[in-house]
Amino acid sequence: MAFTSCLSHPQISLKQPIGTWRNVGVQQRLTSFTSVNTELFGQQVSGIGINFRREWSFARGSRVVIRPEVATFIHHKKASGIHASWLANSQIASSVFTLGTVAVLPFYTLMVFAPKAELTKKSMETSIPYVVLGLLYAYLLYLSWTPDTLRLMFASKYLLPELPGIAKMFTNEMTLASAWIHLLGVDLFAARQVFHDGLENQIETRHSVSLCLLFCPIGILTHVITKAMTKRT
């Protein structure tokens, strides 16, 4: 009798699935209040929030169920394009850095281990390595140039370079690689001058040329000291 009376209760509709009942108005208000749309690492994250739902059943009565909604990540082609561009520039800088370093090593090897050989003398007379290094430097400079380059180079009110601005410029790999190519070209030119001066004055230059590869000012200073000591003797 109790079971029959319960089934005949006028407030319960048998057309609705037994066991669940949703308060649409409450869910819409709470969901709109707790929903968040944000962007993370170039990807839009949508639908983050908490879903409140009220359920009713014969066995458990009425209750409020809180369920976190699953986040949805929307991929942006723009972000991937920027990442691909950055990766390509990084690879170019690394490749040119290695290419420039390897290109100058044969000339230093000849000047140090075979300073009087005809091949060494002819190699030191050619301008090909400086043309190659100049083209590589111009290419990297073009890729690393930004509207803020001049402002960072001449940041002071007297239009002179300042250390913070130069340091900020060299945080870019492309700029750093171009500076390395610049140093390789200048160092090789200075090493060639030291080498030619040593041949003309019969002065030992192998130690000075070796220092010019990475410590060019010290290499030049060493050559000057060596030349002065040789004249005294």
3D structure, described in words:
The protein is α+β, with helices and mostly antiparallel strands and 233 residues long. The chain has helices spanning 2-7, 24-34, 77-113, 118-125, 128-144, 149-153, 163-169, 173-201, 206-214, 216-232, and strands at 36-40, 43-48, 50-57, 61-68, 72-74. Strands 1-2-5 form a three-stranded antiparallel beta sheet, with no helix packed on it. It has a two-stranded antiparallel sheet with strand order 3-4. The radius of gyration is 37 Å and the shape is globular.
Number of helices: 10
Shape: globular
* Rg estimate, integer Å: 37 Å
In percent terms, what proportion of residues is strand? 5-15%
Largest sheet: 3 strands, antiparallel
Q: Let me know the average pLDDT.
A: 75
Span between termini = 129 Å
Strand tally: 5
Structural class: alpha+beta
Low-confidence stretches: 1-48, 70-84
Give, in order, the helices and strands: HHEEEEEHHHHHHHH
Helix content: 55-70%
Strand order of the largest sheet: 1-2-5
